[in-house]
Amino acid sequence: MRTLIVDDERLARNELKRLLEPYTKIEIVGEAANADEALVLIDELQPELLFLDIQMPGKNGFELLSSIEGKSPEVIFTTAYDEYAIKAFEYNALDYLLKPIDVERLKDAIHRIEESQIHPEVSVTANDRAEKILGENDQVFVKDGEKCWFVKLGKIRLFESMGNYVRLHFDDQKPLVLKSLNNLEERLDSNTYFRANRKHIINLHWIEKIEPWFSGGLLVTLQGGDKIEISRRQAIRFKELMSL
């Protein structure tokens, strides 16, 4: 994947190049120290991917993206500041890496690039995104305290109500978001996400085992070991949904 690194700090560019060395599919075709240099190189080199800093002399990273004519490359933001993460999401970024860049987070970002090539998605505006039903290939921005993630919904195996918050279960992470479970249920694709009971929405693709449970309910075990009870009322819907 033809890649351009845009960062005003030479040491940061060199460090990123070093971190990217193990990824043979990432071909670094150039680097730029500011937006003006980057625009020239984008026009000349036609990169497919930008690793883009946000705060730079002159135009910032967002202004650079707004100045690109024609189809924009995919973008992974690299920055020392987490306050721009929500705005980065509006630009449909693949990921948002905080400096100093963590090796595992970079690995996740590269994996997301590979998946985006296998499952290309139609770009949508922020307003469109606010209305559309979210499926397993959509990404969501999650911030909990000082940590933030771009998470592909298909990786989230369980949504758990915690009062006015919802806990998301993905990988070994369990961040809280200020949302109600009912609000999330309205946004999620019902072919993939099922309301098991008052407190839980499960990802059907993560079910490993189903057992009969008390009072006509069901007990499902998700990959990773979570055990969730499907209420008797929801068990009827579940059986209808999962039957031929």
Question: Can you lay out the helices and strands and say which pair or pack?
Answer:
Elements: E1 2-6, H1 10-20, E2 27-32, H2 35-45, E3 49-52, H3 61-67, E4 74-79, H4 85-90, E5 95-98, H5 103-118, H6 126-131, E6 139-144, E7 147-152, E8 158-162, E9 165-169, E10 176-177, H7 181-187, E11 193-195, E12 200-203, E13 207-212, E14 218-222, E15 227-230, H8 232-242
Parallel strand pairs: 1-2, 1-3, 3-4, 4-5
Antiparallel strand pairs: 6-7, 8-9, 8-12, 9-10, 11-12, 13-14, 14-15
Helix pairs in contact: 2-3
Describe the structure.
This protein is an alpha/beta fold. The chain has 2 domains: 2-127, Response regulator (Rossmann fold, 3-Layer(aba) Sandwich), CATH 3.40.50; 157-242, OB fold (Dihydrolipoamide Acetyltransferase, E2P). It is 31% helix and 29% strand. The protein contains 8 helices and 15 strands. The strands form 4 sheets. Strands 2-1-3-4-5 form a 5-stranded parallel β-sheet, sandwiched between helices. The chain is elongated, with a radius of gyration of 21 Å. GO terms for molecular function: DNA binding; phosphorelay response regulator activity. Pfam families: LytTR (PF04397), Response_reg (PF00072). This is Transcriptional regulatory protein BtsR.
Which tags fit this structure?
Rossmann fold; 2 domains; five-stranded antiparallel β-sheet; phosphorelay response regulator activity; phosphoprotein; CheY-like_superfamily; OB fold (Dihydrolipoamide Acetyltransferase, E2P); 244 residues; LytTR_DNA-bd_dom; five-stranded parallel β-sheet
